[in-house]
Amino acid sequence: MYSFLQGPVDPVLLVLDATLVMGCAGIPGLFLKRPGPGQVVAALCTICAALIGIPTVLQLLLSGTTATRSIAWSLPFGPCDLAIDPLSALFLIPVFLVTAAGSLFAVGYWPARQYRRSEPGLTLFFGTLGASMALLLMARNTVFFMMVWEVMALSAYFLIVTEHEREEVRRAGTIYLIATHCGSALLLLLFSLLAAQTGTFLLPPAGSLSALTPLAPLMALAGLIGFGAKAGIMPLHFWLPPAHANAPSHVSALMSGVMLKMGVYGIVRTASFFYDIPLVWGTILTIAGIISALLGISFALAQRDLKRLLACSSIENIGIISLGMGIALVGAASRIPELMYLGGAGALLHVLNHSLFKPLLFLGSGVIIHATGTRDMNLMGGLGKTMPRIGGLFLVGTVAICGIPPLNGFVSEFLLYLGFFSQLQGDNLIYLMAGAPVLALVGGLAAITFTKLYSSVFLGTPRSPGGGVHRGGELQMGVPMLLCAFLCLVIGVVPQMALSLVSPAVMTLFPRLPLLPLSAEYGAILEKLSLAGVLLLTMALVVTVIWKWRLGREPVTAAPTWGCGYQRGTSRMQYGGTSFSELAISIGNGVVRQRIERPLLAGLFPERSRCSDTPTETLLDAIIAPFFQAAGMSFAFLRRLQNGLMHIYVLYIFATLFILMLWAH
Amino acid sequence: MMNCIIHITLALVMPPLLLGVIGKTKAAFAGRVGAPFLQPYFDIYRLLRKGTVFSTTTSWVFRAGPIVALSTTAVAALLVPFGAHPSPISFNGDMILYAYLFALGRFFTMAAALDTGSSFEGMGSAREATYSCLAEPTLFFALITLSRLSSSTTLTGMLSNVSGGAWLYAGASLLLLVGGMFIVLLSENCRIPFDDPNTHLELTMIHEVMVLDHSGPAFALIQYGASMKLFVLGAFFIQLALPFATGNPLADWGVFICSMLLLAIVIGVVESVMARLRLVRVPQLLVAATILAAFSTLLVIR
Hints:
The structure holds 2 protein chains of 2 kinds.
Chain A (H helix, E strand, L loop, with lengths): L1 E2 L3 E2 L2 H13 L3 H4 L6 H27 L3 E5 L8 E5 L1 H24 L9 H20 L3 H19 L6 H32 L10 E2 L4 H17 L8 H7 L2 H24 L1 E2 L3 H24 L3 H29 L2 H36 L10 H4 L1 H14 L6 H15 L12 H24 L15 H20 L1 H15 L5 H39 L2 E4 L17 H11 L4 E6 L14 E6 H17 L11 H19 L1
Parallel strand pairs in A: 5-6
Antiparallel strand pairs in A: 1-2, 3-4, 8-9
Chain B lengths: L1 H12 L1 H16 L8 H10 L3 E4 L4 H20 L14 H22 L3 H32 L4 H7 L2 H25 L18 H4 L5 H26 L7 H25 L7 H21 L1
Helix pairs in contact in B: 2-10, 2-11, 3-10, 4-5, 4-10, 5-6, 6-7, 6-8, 6-12, 8-10, 8-12, 10-11
């Protein structure tokens, strides 16, 4: 890479600079008296950082090279290496993209004039969250990794509790904090074991440790739970729905689109250290993926809160990603390059895809909440007519997340299906075929969920008065959504390009994979898929032209919807979100319920009464909540240590260090 | 090339005829003369020349529904082989695209129905969404069985492998598959016993109730698209059930047309002798179909 002034420039340094700009973007705003300019400056800085970062990273990714740089620091943990290999590069793209999109969105969504008190902090921590994730992906020293991991976790906490005057928000923040620190504790275990094994604090290169040593399964398990808690793999997902639902929408977009992927990155990176991976690792990850996907989408189906629904669907998507990684590891254990490639590429492409359509949907949900003033889908409706552009962009995200062609969600699922079908001729891994019907079922449930979401928000007529008021700022909010929607369409129509982005990252994961023939083979298949997509769009165009031609020749009239003879239909009588999913939930009863309380109607002229519904999760209520209650009871005696006195806490730290020093000697 | 043109022509021209044959069969069972075989063509032609009424609550989504439904089915028609002839478009994994194209069409049909704000149409689309979700795994189990039997991952490869020989070799499994897929064929095309295209009670309908508010040319597109869906799913089914091939290209087209007409007669007979199922029974039958297909998979992979 060359700059015009000094000749060659280190790409790591360039990305590092971009990261620092992103991380410090919110600082000027802290010192400005007048609300407004600080936020705009932050958005501009973040966009500039993305404009520097993304091309650099793309170039590194496409060339398949690794750039390394060592940073001088005085801590006694060995050199602080930073590196961007294709795997880091792939994950860096969404970090820059979504942070930039989110900070621009914030200008319209969380205007400083209106939210004078909360805006500076929100802008600051939004930048630090993005920057810490970028550093995390570059970090090769485990101590530095843990530091930025904590910065990420805490930035996210402060973002979640932006509206901390609400009880619900504080609760969501606390649950998140507990979950993330449980995960961090296991990561400390993982990294100390790694340090014990390798003798340094640097992350080992890919394929350098044997998975057959006694410590290896322990490391893998610690990594799976520690990173899995961040990613939201079942049953470690419980923090995710409340946190995503209660954060401001662009924060939810960044957390769901990118921060969850840091957990995925951790799992992928940990798996890449080992060679001779036993079959059971991949099997566990596959099963965890299947459970997360199925249960996640079932939970999503029952929700009536718009953002909770989106958050639950993140669990599903993380499940699909783990499923892909699981079959890649199964392939690695059985030495089947095809399976390694399809699973790995499918999973990593889904990472990229999910980081496009989920932010699109979360940003869209922000606009919706702005317009309606509620998160309850049963009170919305008809927004498609008051804001047709946002409705159109949201539809792109909806179709993409259902995994329907010709958008990007289909492409990654297509690769996974190919993986499931690829082992049908063998004898050992034939049970992998069970993934295909499961993924089909997940796809079907996702279609119900998102039809429910889209129809109850955008279609029909408003279900409550005052819904659909337009409040301005549509440009700043629309442009980031447009960008995401456009990229969804590009990946969907030209999937072979996306595959060429993902292939080098799969190569980093499995260095011994014969990559070129595989990526050429599947690239060719995706080219055909792309032709089919173009054919589909052409066909739609032809049908539209025919229909328009006939429509123009005959009279067109407007009339109310046919009420089957009933003259006094109201918008409250429309099929709402809860009623739409009721049938599906009643069939899959057990895992998740919509508890509907109906009044008993008596007499010829029943009086006014109320009907309410609340989604309940059996898993959460029956297992996780009692577990935490039991833990809380049995550790109650530790509360005495927690007395709220600052000097005592400092004393604890000192005492711990002292004891550790004694122990070490 | 010639085969390709015949394929496209058949896919475009023949579908409404199946509806005509079904109607005629039902009329024969009821002891009536029935409408002419070509009646569905007349219906579509008449609808194309009518004016349109748009509900005032609808947006562009309502207008897009019929268009997307028809175009996805038309692309799916190019993916599936007709009889012994390969399909015009074929690549590894095309069966997944085939399955998901219907999902796209369904999504837009349901969205268009919900856009009218009518509760009846809402009920219809909730049912459609749920039942199709239950039918999806059946199709995939069928694809797995076929892929295992044929060692192929294209629809053409899978379906052209099914022959008299395959029936001798894996007859039990194919028989289960035929049972499961016939249930899916009927439910996806909203035929009796799942749905009655001719009923007049909106409360119990599925597909017909979703398109209540469409009129004129848009309704013509829907009718035509529905018949084409029957044709496309039917072509998949008859290749499983009646895998006859003569070796002569022209004769094979004749065999294909005859088997499709036979399928229409069978559907007509089923519709004449069965009553509609109660709505609560529908999911049970669909799950049963999935289990049949899963059995057939078990039989071939054991």
